[in-house]
Amino acid sequence: KRVVVFISGGGSNMLSLADACEDPGFPAEIVAVISDKPQAGGLAKAEARGIQTLAFERKSYAGKAEHEAAILAALSDIQPDIICLAGYMRLISGEFISRYEGRMLNIHPSILPLFPGLHTHQRALDAGMRVAGCTVHFVTEGMDEGPIVAQDCVPVHIDDTPDTLAARVLTVEHRLYPEALALLATGGVSLKAGRAKFDPEG
Ligand code: GRF
């Protein structure tokens, strides 16, 4: 399966997906990395691996619609089977998502539905959580609320700060996202009537 990864920053999740795709037996290949930030550190890392990169700086476009139209035009040339959002810090319109319904994943650094949105680790600590974690979900119009594909958790240590907890969760993200992508790429999960359907034969 042809995968395009969207990033806005360092792209550590994109790199873990790229590492997984380097295994010839892995059921997906990253054909491009797209960012809304031309300076995103992940773009240079992708290029160093020979992956095509494209940057669409938001302020270069009149509005959200024009920005998304430019990205969609590039995607229609690339023809990805799957889009993986990985540290992509921009909400995508329902119209855009509908083009890739059931073929677009996102990773979020909390055990959804707990803590959608930002500052998830600080909020988990403030809530006194004893576990934290991450979720890979289908992207739907609402933010961080699509049907869940995969989750995993880590213990919260009593001396954790948001940064120490984020680092522990990120390690799990880097394992979880490739697993979730492989599940989607092999038909082990699909989006049916707004729910994630798992196929044991998948
Ligand atoms: C990660 O916590 C990810 O879950 C969130 O953004 C953070 C940075 O991701 N979406 P990356 O290092 O840019 O992949």
Note the topology.
Blueprint: E1 2-7, H1 12-21, E2 29-35, H2 41-48, E3 53-55, H3 64-78, E4 82-85, H4 94-99, E5 104-108, H5 120-126, E6 131-138, E7 148-155, H6 162-185, E8 189-192, E9 195-198
Bound molecules: 5-O-phosphono-beta-D-ribofuranosylamine (GRF).
What can you see in these coordinates?
The protein is of the alpha/beta class. Helices cover 35% and strands 24% of the residues. It is built from six helices and nine strands; from the N terminus they run βαβαβαβαβαββαββ. The chain has helices spanning 12-21, 41-48, 64-78, 94-99, 120-126, 162-185, and strands at residues 2-7, 29-35, 53-55, 82-85, 104-108, 131-138, 148-155, 189-192, 195-198. The strands form two sheets. The chain has a seven-stranded mixed sheet with strand order 3-2-1-4-5-6-7, sandwiched between helices. Strands 8-9 form a two-stranded antiparallel ribbon. α5 packs across α6. It is globular, with a radius of gyration of 16 Å. The relative contact order is 0.15. The mean pLDDT is 97. The structure holds 5-O-phosphono-beta-D-ribofuranosylamine (GRF). The site of 5-O-phosphono-beta-D-ribofuranosylamine has 15 residues, from α1, β5 and α6. One of its GO terms (biological process) is 'de novo' IMP biosynthetic process.
